[in-house]
Amino acid sequence: MMRDALFGGVNAAVLTAMNADLSVDLDRMAAHSRWLLANGCNGLGVLGTTGEANSIGISERLALMEGLAERGISPAVMLPGTGTPALTDTVLLTRRAAELGCRGALLLPPFFYKNPSEDGLFAYFSEVIERVGGDIKLYLYHFPAQSAVPFTVALIARLLAAYPGKVKGIKDSSGDFANTKSYVDAFAKDGFEVYCGDDGALFDLLEAGGAGCITAASNVGCAVSAQVYAQAGTEAGRQAQVTLAAIRKAVTSVALIPGLKALVARNTGNPAWNEQRPPHMKLDAATSQRLFAAFDGIGVKLAAAA
């Protein structure tokens, strides 16, 4: 297990709270962020896939980062998603994250044009790195099922050689543990931080030398994830991993973002948590009950919301 990682441990891919008019509710999102940090999270992956980032405009993303900081959420624990298909938007968001005091930013590849060359991707990230400057570390976001643009070991090797210390790690949401481990095997010895997006892989990743997780299910399962991390390599950690895998199975048994929002709405007693931007849609009553039954059957009780 990598012990000195910048975002080592449990990072939630934080849900974005929304109002009935689909605007962002920063007060409720900040309250959820505080709950996550109090219940096992080391960091907050805001503006990721689970946070509906690609349904949120650039000005809104800036306001979200600024608004959480204004509400007392330390930028030092935030790992905002700042990668967009537009080079200048990516630079703008990443620079603002750096100005606020974020230590890192998580970047999707430029995902609109399909089958880009390795040279093209290297050129894109070179431009981002050189234009952003400063000390903020960049983390790559490998999610080929959504982006259709993979991060290969060869591309990462080129970036690390050209910009030592700048590209600090990767979140792998491929769901392919062999791929996740390939990043560890190739680069962890040089301090490259590898995070899984699959809660089911956390114990094995830590054992292989990874840094932790950045996951959707951490919105409800972070206390169990924290047990896996704290007890990595032990039988107690392995048993906690069984529970964590069950949590992931339950929350992925329905549409992920609507399901997580339904669980948080139930736990907080606030139905406004069910608001989300189309094309995501609220779960119907029968699907919600099926999700609740699956989750409750695991035997994990969520801490009360503040």
Q: Determine the structural class based on helices, strands and strand pairing.
A: alpha/beta
Major sheet: size, sense and barrel closure? Answer: 7 strands, parallel
> What is the architecture at the second tier of CATH?
Alpha-Beta Barrel
Low-confidence stretches: none
Bin the strand percentage.
5-15%
Order of helices and strands: EHEHHEHEHHEHEHEHHHH
CATH superfamily: Aldolase class I
How many domain regions? Answer: 1
> Order of strands in the sheet with the most strands?
2-1-7-6-5-4-3
Radius of gyration: 18 Å
State the separation between the terminal residues, measured CA to CA: 32 Å
Query: What's the mean pLDDT score?
Result: 97
Characteristic key phrases:
7 strands; alpha/beta; 306 residues; TIM Barrel; 7-stranded parallel β-sheet; single chain
How is this structure best described in words?
The chain has 306 residues and is an alpha/beta fold. It has one domain (9-230): Aldolase class I (TIM Barrel, Alpha-Beta Barrel). It is built from 12 helices and 7 strands. The chain has a 7-stranded parallel β-sheet with strand order 2-1-7-6-5-4-3. Helix 9 runs antiparallel to helix 10 (235-251). The longest helix is centred in the last third of the chain and has 17 residues, at 235-251.
